[in-house]
Design brief:
The protein has 162 residues and is mainly alpha-helical. The N and C termini lie far apart (58 Å). The mean pLDDT is 81. The relative contact order is 0.08. The chain has eight helices and no strands.
Length: 162
């Protein structure tokens, strides 16, 4: 990879990263870019690259950003501490269980798979036999709305959420 090709690829990569992974800072983008370039060079030497350098580096960068995003998301989830007392937490949990039992079985199964088991939209699409990821997201929204309708404002106010 020539210096000109490297700089051109770097500029394109940074523009792509800013538009698709905007929550990462410049250091993260630089690190991912350099990792992707080193992987590209290694694979190119082994004659295992069958596309242009930019496309290959973007592909590697996408996977690296996704892994980095998942790692950062898990750290944020681990640091979450609900700002409510233990009694309110258990009452909210019981209220959620009660209201989940009020919606139909398919909605309940979909919401539990999504939010308790953390299945991706693609996994849910396959599990529930939906035609596309867009369809499963629409079903999720409808199910969330149905569940939300069962929550009474007074109950949430009492628990300190409104």
């Amino acid at each position: 990879m020539s210096d000109k090709e490297f700089l051109d690829c770097r500029d394109k990569f940074f523009r792509w990263a800013r538009s698709n992974w905007s929550f990462f800072d410049e250091n993260d983008v630089e690190e991912v870019f350099l990792d992707a370039v080193s992987i590209y060079i290694e694979k190119d030497r082994q004659h295992k690259v069958n596309t242009d350098s930019y496309k290959y580096i973007i592909g590697v960068g996408y996977r690296k950003f996704h892994k980095l995003y998942e790692a950062k998301r898990k750290v944020v989830e681990l640091k979450f501490d609900p700002p409510i007392d233990e009694d309110s937490y258990f009452r909210l949990k019981e209220l959620l269980r009660k209201n989940l039992n009020k919606i139909n079985e398919k909605c309940r199964a979909l919401l539990i798979a999504k939010y308790f088991y953390r299945h991706s939209a693609k996994e849910l699409m396959e599990e529930f036999g939906a035609a596309s990821v867009g369809v499963i997201r629409q079903q999720q929204k409808r199910c969330r709305d149905r569940l939300r309708d069962f929550f009474k404002n007074e109950e949430l106010e009492e628990l300190g959420f409104l």
